[in-house]
Amino acid sequence: MEPGMDDKTKKRIYMFYAAGVVNLLIGAYILFFGRNFLPEDKITMLILFFLGFAAIDFWMPVMMKKKAAQDQARLEAQRRAMGTQGGQSQPPKT
Predict the structure, then answer these.
(1) Tens of pLDDT along 64-92?
(2) Which of 12, 26, 77, 79 is deepest in the core (most CB within 10 A)?
(3) Which of 60, 64, 66, 85 has the alpha carbon at shortest distance from 9?
């Protein structure tokens, strides 16, 4: 994980990965054993459903990490900009 990432975001990322694994397992179960108790059209629909959500569950953490890295870079740029100004805020002119 990113060193500057807060615990709340890390927890959300772990939960997305866990949900992705669960969706993959359910999709695989239906793929291999669903023919015993489900009609063919339902099997296809359920497999697409669970594997689609698994893909989303593995894609979301990538986007969350990318957004966290962008936010961290923006904060660092603001800190550097404040550092070049001497770190002193100027009182507003009236």
Answers:
(1) 999 988 988 998 999 888 887 655 555 56
(2) 26
(3) 64
